[in-house]
Amino acid sequence: MSDIFLVRQPVFGPTGNRLGYEIRVRDSEDGRDAFARSVLSGTFDLVRGDQPAFVTWTREQLLDPDFPIIDPKIAVLFLPPSLAAEPEIVAALERYRAEGGSVALDDLDDAVVPSEALLPYATWARVDMRLGDLALIGRICDRMTAGNKSVRLMACCIEAHEEFEFALNMVMDGFQGTYFSTPEPVAAAELPQSTVTALRLLGSSRDPKVTDPQLEAIIATDPVITFHLLRLVNSAAAGGRGVQSIGQALRLVGRTALQRWLAVAVAVSRKSKTGVDQELVQRALERGHLLEQLTGEGRESGTLFLVGLFSMLDAVFRMPLAQLLERASLSQEVTDALLEHTGPYAPALAFVEAYESGDFDQAFAMADQLQIARSRITEVYMNALKAAHTTLGTVSA
Question: 205: buried, middle or exposed (CB in 10 Å: 19+, 13-18, 0-12)?
């Protein structure tokens, strides 16, 4: 599995509901089919989770009867625009559709000639917003819906609010892009009181001049934080059943564990109303766990966990990141990495951003700079996904 590299990217619906994940797989350098190996090894299903999968498909894969296919009921196949409506192609599509599968025409442009011949077999048609010309994109969408009244339109690579609004007005059903990771701040956005307390505690707990009694006093101001801290310590994992006071709980947990718990509590305190909200919180935790695992001896794994987690919190809370960092009082090195992409932690953050975007070559370059073995990357990524899932199931604030 160490030479199979894949990443998932969410697909959202018009109301922010998550429709599934596009699974992007890096082509194998040895010529072997990386996607097939990811399916056979179980890696694909671990990354997909329980969500529908959107995957890029080739002509060879479509025509190969022995190709290890995933369950058609959970997979949407993106077909290349060069695919022609040859009899064997049509027959393969008809078989796949008969088994409950869906296909999508991909990378539509102004010509769209080969794709239009396959339009009757398509469930989806995807257009890249990087074409730039909104009038052109509109014409392409009109041609698709005119040729197949039931086809669903998807816009990818949405980077700006006006592109999202245009796609909505075109009555598209699927949306992808960095826009959903960096939503525009809401002027009136306010943090929940317990989140404010958690951020204050996070900063104070990292200050060696702040005493435990002072931390107790801050914790005592918020009953929600107090309840969850006592619940944490009274859990079987903490081995502290019967704890009755904040001071006792704080001594049993210790500052390092407290800081980690507070950081996670901040992230999950965001009330998730849509699939976009849930995905942002999940990705924030995934980044934290991923960066934490990349650390080796002599590196600050706890600090890199915070770098990964906080790198998504502006999107999570719809607030400028600088305002959140002021409340948390993190180190200057962490602040520089998050706000300026400079300092000792910036390369690690650049690695995770490149990998998430599917820019595997850039991610490998950053991994080499960080002296991270490429053979570890997939395992670390998978572990981060699983750790984030576990965290979301066990932590609340």
Answer: buried
Could you tell me how many residues make up the chain? 397
pLDDT in tens, 73-93: 889 999 988 888 899 999 999
Under the phi-then-psi rule, with left for phi > 0, alpha for psi from -120 to 50, and beta for the rest, what region is 174? beta
Reported as half-sphere exposure (CB side, CA atoms, 13 A), residue 123 has a value of 17
Long-range contacts of 326-329 (CB under 8 A, 24+ apart): 327/191, 327/196, 327/199, 327/200, 327/203, 328/199, 328/202, 328/203, 328/266, 329/202, 329/203, 329/204, 329/206, 329/207
Residues in the chain with pLDDT values less than 70: 1-2, 28-32, 66-68, 111-115, 183-190, 234-244, 271-273, 295-299, 393-397
Residue 103 pairs with which residues in a beta bridge?
Answer: 77
Give yes or no for a contact between 129 and 156, defined as CB atoms under 8 angstroms apart: yes
Instruction: Name the pTM for this structure.
Output: 0.83
d(CA 284, CA 339): 16
How far, in Å, CA of 192 to CA of 99, rounded?
48
Please report how the helices 212-220 and 223-233 are oriented relative to each other, as an axis angle in degrees rounded to 10. 120
Contacts with 135 (C-beta within 8 Å, 6 or more apart), sequence order:
none
pLDDT in tens, 147-165: 899 999 999 999 999 999 9
3-state secondary structure of 43: helix
What pLDDT is recorded for position 272?
66
388, two tokens: 């984030």
Rounded to whole angstroms, how far apart are CA atoms 158 and 347?
Answer: 25
Rounded (5°) CA angle 327-191-346: 50
With a CB cutoff of 8 Å and minimum separation 6, the contacts of 190 are none
Cross-strand pairs, 78:
56, 104
Tell me the CA distances in angstroms from 149 to 108, 124, 146, 179, one per residue in order: 17, 11, 6, 28
pLDDT for 8-28, tens place per residue?
A: 999 999 999 999 999 998 876
Residue type, 284: A
